[in-house]
Design brief:
Low-confidence stretches: 1-37
Helix content: 10-25%
Number of helices: 15
Strand content: 25-35%
Largest sheet: 8 strands, mixed
Mean pLDDT: 86
Length: about 550
Amino acid sequence: MKKSLFGKKSFGLLLLVLMAQLVIWSCKKVPIIYSTTDEVNITGYLDAHPDSFSAFRQILSVTGYDGFLSAYGHYTLFLPTNAGVESYLKSMNKTSVDQVDVKELQDLVKFHLLKDTVYSISFTDGKLPQMTMYGQYLVTGASFSGGVTRVTVNRQANILETNLRMGNGVIHVIDHVLEPARFTLAEKIEKDGRYGIFTQALKFTGFYDSLNILPAASHDSANAWFTVLAQSDSVFHANGIQNFEALRDKYNNTTDPKNPADSLHMFVAYHVLHGANYLADIISSSSFNTLAPLQVITSKLSGSTVLVNDDVFNGVHEPGIVLNRNTSDLSATNGVLHEALGALSIKVRSPFAVYWDVCQYPEIMSLPSYYGKQSYNYSLTNLPSFITDPGPATPSYIYGGSPFLYGDYLKIPLGANRTPYVELKTPLLVQGKYKIWVCFRRAGRDNINQVSIDGVPLQRTINFATYIPKGTVAELEAQGWKNYTDPVSSNWQGYLVGTIDIQTTGRHDLRFTNLKGTDNDNWLDMIHFIPVDMDQIYPRFQMDGTKTYAP
């Protein structure tokens, strides 16, 4: 699936730009060196620079790993200096590499190695694209201290030199040894004194045990990794919960807190996601399933701030909860830990109608020269955030002179020679059963499409060239048609593409797939998601957005 750099406001890209600018502006710059070396391989480079790297070279010899780093391959080595290795030994009360267990040294080397070449262009504020040979990810980021800009790795080491190209890979020089995570998520949370109440809740509900298993020992390898959004004691206190007993009394509604139906059990489950999701992963998707059945969290990036559950519910904005970047992206042996700076809890909601104007999105509304004034052509690199996969061609924002909502619409070039499909991310839909209406301007040529939600095809295909039939309001509804504009137009019409049971509250993937017909620029104005027990015909919409209700 293609990702939109503009629409998604890629967290990694923004931080990369920020880091690059700060490197340029800083009086003490991090050297970004794209250079070649006469050395044949990584081991040879270390041999040629004993004043800087003899200690790590000794580690390679003791572990026996100098052999494969002398051979052909594609590796990335984060190489600690002699001073960095000496500092590591001192922290262990050791005076030489020979005093450290060989197995521990082998793990150490593997944690500094990636079995692929990764250059500094991939050093974003988040995890690297490849896992280390040890089996954990490394996380890079920007650090600003004393007027100096540095790029850090795992918040444990500063990068001193980058992109030293070898015959079998690339070296990045760092000032300290990187140490892999030694604790499970459960242990890591418990050892952090700020999470006392949350730790007690984990133990009381049984999640502590679930989060204290190494992936290798898990009976379910597909669900061996987790992400926890933990709340500190200060967050609980700010929300009137002074201790665990108060939390228990508020939520625990059964005799068995390990029962999945227990409210406290569900409260804790809602803070746990499947998989190891770093911040870069969280902002790359709009929602995630939690361990609470059929419950999701939504996520978004606002500037450089990562927010969860920042939603518009029934027309009302619900401010989200910030994930603290400084205390998030913490690796554990079985996942990753983030800190939520607000109270995260399941919200009980009833289904409500969503009348989605597909041109109401920030990326175009923030362009005063275009929104409501003139058309705007997108490219693959500046799509609005709700277009998650445009196919090989791109939609356009079109403005001008017809009785559609706010005088604008989204032009989608569907067809075999244009784009075979387009995928959109819906607004927040509450769990429930909905009828889905596509509201559009009739096209001049046949263009038949299948509409699907989350990969589930809806019952009726749509031909964008079909005229709305004549008849009463009731007769039209019986045939799956409605007028959605006021005044009524013979060209702008609503068509029922089917009914679907939305299983989880969140944003969902809606796709138009071209089946046959002439290539056409289809004019999409609105999509209505209306609970099956609600009025499907009203309100209608005037051009200025005013709603007209049933007479």
